[in-house]
């Protein structure tokens, strides 16, 4: 219903540094805060699993930080591309992809078990997400690996085939609205390389537009309904 703001739950990608280096994502640059400052503002954290970012020490520190603030934790597996932050196109055999997802999520799950915290969800990172949309064999491999952990998979609105394939493996598919990236006129999410970098004002406006009007402003400046009715 237009004019009535839904409850907004904040989901952020966390633990995306490596060793002593901290990744300057939009959240750090714009909000001027590292994970320690941002964690208290969110409901869900997607923790990098070491392939596109993160390392064992960063992973367990981020788990403990999320636990301290009562934030639910999801795995954030990506392509094995530290140099490109998991945002470059790669060609990977589906069998290798299956093993890579098991490896990453399994590592995070072991750390969560050690800390007495449940795995809440799995959210593919960056180019891995878009690779899944282009190649159904890759999508099948990723979701087959996810099915081992029996938790929901988070993805963008408009990926109907991903939702259908989740059903094949008995997985819940949770649709997420992105306010730091843009959508095209087909209501499909654009990768960071094709999205204009968002400001705080952009993110606030997009959040209110989705929450109040169920609309997004696409990359051509046209408003359209996105269908977040929950």
UniProtKB/TrEMBL annotation:
It comes from the Eukaryota. GO terms for biological process: carbohydrate metabolic process. It holds the Pfam family LamB_YcsF. This is Lactam utilization protein lamB.
């Amino acid at each position: 219903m237009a004019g009535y703001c839904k409850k907004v739950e904040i989901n952020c990608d966390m633990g995306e540094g490596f060793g002593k280096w901290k990744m300057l994502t939009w959240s750090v640059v714009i909000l001027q805060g590292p994970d320690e400052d941002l964690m208290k503002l969110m409901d869900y954290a997607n923790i990098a699993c070491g392939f596109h970012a993160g390392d064992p020490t960063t992973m367990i520190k981020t788990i403990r930080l999320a636990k301290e603030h009562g934030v639910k934790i999801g795995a954030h597996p990506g392509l094995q591309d530290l140099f490109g932050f998991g945002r470059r196109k790669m060609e990977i055999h589906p069998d290798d992809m299956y093993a890579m997802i098991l490896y990453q999520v399994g590592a995070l799950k072991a750390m969560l078990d050690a800390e007495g915290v449940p795995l809440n969800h799995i959210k593919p990172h960056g180019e891995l997400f878009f690779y899944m949309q282009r190649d159904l064999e890759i999508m099948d491999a990723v979701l087959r690996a996810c099915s081992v952990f029996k938790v929901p998979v988070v993805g963008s609105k408009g990926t109907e085939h991903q939702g259908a394939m989740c059903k094949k493996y008995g997985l819940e598919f949770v649709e997420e609205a992105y306010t730091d990236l843009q959508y095209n006129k087909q209501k499909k999410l654009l990768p960071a390389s094709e999205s204009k970098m968002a400001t705080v004002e952009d993110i606030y406006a997009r959040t209110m537009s989705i929450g109040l009007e169920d609309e997004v402003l696409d990359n051509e400046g046209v408003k359209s309904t996105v269908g977040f009715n929950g």
